[in-house]
Design brief:
This protein is of the alpha+beta class and 162 residues long. It is built from four helices and nine strands, in the order E-H-E-E-H-E-E-E-H-E-E-H-E. Strands 2, 3, 4, 5 and 6 form a five-stranded antiparallel sheet that branches. It is elongated, with a radius of gyration of 20 Å. The model has no long low-confidence stretch (mean pLDDT 88).
Length: 162
């Protein structure tokens, strides 16, 4: 009898790629003519991003530039959690953050999806901010991976396939 095969479902973001995308976006904002004199800038402190400009449309344009740089660097926009622009004095601000790890409610949704729609004999357990999926059949695990690739709520990666 074969032993259990497992893999972990995680949601991780390459911090260096995010930093590179941020620096590229900052350079583009400084150089672009349509951002001259509107006070457009991006500040990054750890996990939080703060985008500033003198109008709501310009803040959204700054966000668009940053998103395009993330896409070019291979980072899914599912891991970017952006709020709505709000007025702060004479400028508009938009706060965003890079999400890492699988939130508890999303982990429960994935767990339920595997239980309801996955092959029989596949078990999944929540371990902190990741999930471990196990089964006796590797084919069943690959079927679960294919099913989770279509999952909309988070950017998922599969690691430690044993």
């Amino acid at each position: 009898m074969a032993s259990e095969s497992t893999f972990d479902v995680v949601s991780k973001v390459d911090k260096q790629e995010v930093a590179n995308a941020l620096h590229q976006a900052q350079k583009e904002i400084v150089q672009r003519y349509d951002f001259k004199g509107v006070g457009a800038e991006i500040d990054f402190s750890g996990e939080k991003l703060l985008l500033k400009a003198n109008s709501e449309e310009r803040v959204m344009a700054v966000m668009d530039v940053f998103e395009s740089k993330l896409i070019k660097r291979g980072i899914s926009l599912k891991s970017l959690d952006a709020g709505e622009p709000y007025a702060s004095g004479k400028e508009y601000r938009l706060e965003a953050e890079i999400k890492e790890g699988i939130a508890q409610d999303v982990a429960k949704k994935i767990n339920k999806l595997i239980r309801d729609e996955g092959p029989k004999g596949v078990k999944s357990t929540i371990q902190g901010d990741e999930l471990r999926v196990s089964s006796k059949s590797r084919d069943d695990l690959q079927e679960v991976m294919a099913m989770l690739r279509k999952f909309e709520d988070a950017d998922l990666q599969f690691v430690n396939l044993r």
